[in-house]
Amino acid sequence: MEPGDYGDRDLKLVDTAIASLRKKYNIDDNRIYATGFSNGAHFTYLLWATRPNVFAAFAPVAGRIRPSAMPKVPRPLLHIGGSRDAQVAFADQEAAMRMAVRINAVDGKGKPCGTGCTLYGADTAAPVMTWIHPGGHEYPRGTSERIVEFFHQHTLGTRD
């Protein structure tokens, strides 16, 4: 996904959906999150680039950052990827993770946080967590639980 594709219809859909939900429900604006798998992960990175002040944290699964949709505002990120992913080249996913570490200005060394898991900037407002599993282009068991746990740790608050 690129900014401007199809008149930004997907971004407009998200904006409309959030506005509609706000009208009907008591939405906590500090706890709105974005996640997606594959093309949805690319879109998650696009949301980070274009709507950083709407979402508290992001969790792409098997995605990459497109050069035309480069995030600029630090936000908590959990990237999940398979080391044998042939559909979204793992090298592209690694580049996205390195870019997130740079954007969020967190320690490039990282600390282990479980099997295949590395946490960069644990004590910062915008950490980057990566979970690399040994599979391919898939949404592995336990992914949703990891994402929920990560999101529970982060709120938007007054950060900008």
Give the key terms.
single chain, 160 residues, alpha/beta, 4 helices, 6 strands, 18% strand
Q: How many DSSP E strands?
A: 6
Coarse structural class: alpha/beta
Order of helices and strands: HEHEEHEEEH
Strand order in space, largest sheet? 1-2-3-6-5-4
Low-confidence parts: none
Q: Largest sheet, if any?
A: 6 strands, mixed
Total helical elements: 4
Alpha carbon gyration radius: 15 Å
Q: What fraction of residues sit in β-strands?
A: 15-25%
Average pLDDT level = 93
- The general outline is globular
Give the termini distance in whole angstroms: 25 Å
Would you write up a description of this structure?
The structure is a single chain. This protein has 160 residues and is α/β, with parallel strands linked by helices. Helices cover 32% and strands 18% of the residues. It contains four helices and six strands. Strands 1-2-3-6-5-4 form a six-stranded mixed sheet, with helices on both faces. Helix 2 links the parallel strand 1 and strand 2. The chain starts with 8 loop residues before the first helix and ends in an 8-residue tail after the last helix. The mean pLDDT is 93.
Secondary structure topology:
Elements: H1 9-24, E1 33-37, H2 39-50, E2 57-61, E3 77-82, H3 90-103, E4 111-112, E5 117-120, E6 128-133, H4 143-152
Parallel strand pairs: 1-2, 2-3, 3-6
Antiparallel strand pairs: 4-5, 5-6
